[in-house]
Sequence to fold (437 residues):
Amino acid sequence: MAFRLNTSLRNSPIFTNNPDYDAEERVRVWVASAQCMQKTGLPLVVCGSSGGVVPIEEWALADDRGHALLANVVAHFKKEPFTAEDLTKINLWITAVGVFLLSLMLGLSGMPLSSLLFLLMASRKAIPGPIPGPDVPSSYIGIISLGLVPVVFLYSRIFRSLSRNKVIFGWALSLLCLAAACLLRQPIGIIGVMLCLSVLLGRCLGKTCRGRLGCWLRQGVLAVLIAGTLWGSSLLLVLRGAFYKIPPAPRVAAHGFWHTFYHGLGTRANPWGIEWRDAYGYRLARQIDPTIVYSTPPYFKLMRKLYLTTVAKNPLDVLKIYFLKLVEIISQPFRILGINIYSWALAVLFLLPLLMVVTPIDKAWPLHIVAGLEGALFLFILQGVVGIPWLKHLYPAKMIVLLQLMCLSDYLWLMFKSRFSIISDAIGKFLPKMRAS
Fold:
């Protein structure tokens, strides 16, 4: 991995200046904020033409703040002017760190084969990745890896106990990785949040916490910590205001999901004339209420109302749009051994219940991790269905499916060792009797 990362870092000018690379406007804002940090020492702001500073949320609307924060940190220690090339290097480091930490968690969770195979595969395929560059999709594999760290940890602990030190380290690493994933790309981080909360809910409703108030309280505290990672961007802006006297702007601090839900209906021909363009939502909101400011809480409240009203009045039309987008996602050119990745995922989905039935509980933790990854894949695809099914957003789906297959290899190895141990014990008991006779 170190060799691949070093080579990719040296090639970052080529990646950054690729004329075919599709970077959004936020990249320019991140660079401007980092350069403003170098001039003023103030974080997460953009320098205005008149000499003042403007909060970054006034420029990068409904954006995650993780990349801007990392750009500001790098710029603080950099003597030369910060450029888009530095963002490309940041993305390469995000991918490398995310892959390494997920591989580490797989190893700590008793999945040595998966840990090694994932590290080797990701080092070769994810660094620099299929679309290296300065924008956030270039680091998606790293961000998803960070979001999957707590999923692997929690799902590996279902019906399985670990040492106290491993539990403390696992929780600390999981919360740190989940917070980083939410800061860098909240829609990806929320996948990890939802899957982790589902495990905690299962503990509360199952035998683990039945009749035990202390267990319920522990799960409640953990749930608050996990859900709290979603508000990392808001916390950053609050801290900026506390230390640098720059209050947050009235616009939302991170993603606004209802904007995506409503505009997602406009990615296909539709009877309502909805378009997949930010300008469309702004124009529509101003027509309904001229006082609404774009990307503020009232704007997203209106988007929520419009989306829910459209779904309630035209459920079949909405389902048709979602079905067409699902078909497009399944038809994307992602293959493993020449077979569509979603065919692999479907085969795993049907195989899992059968393996769960025949596998002893104390040997089933690799299957629990595979189930968690299946849930992550479903939520990841669902984002493409309700949003827009672009290849540059959905390419990490192949990594999730490959990781499932790697975890199944650990399961097979575990079962083989178990059967071999039984045979070895039987031979050990039988040989002395043969010698005695």
About this structure: Residues 148 and 192 are 6 Å apart (CA to CA).
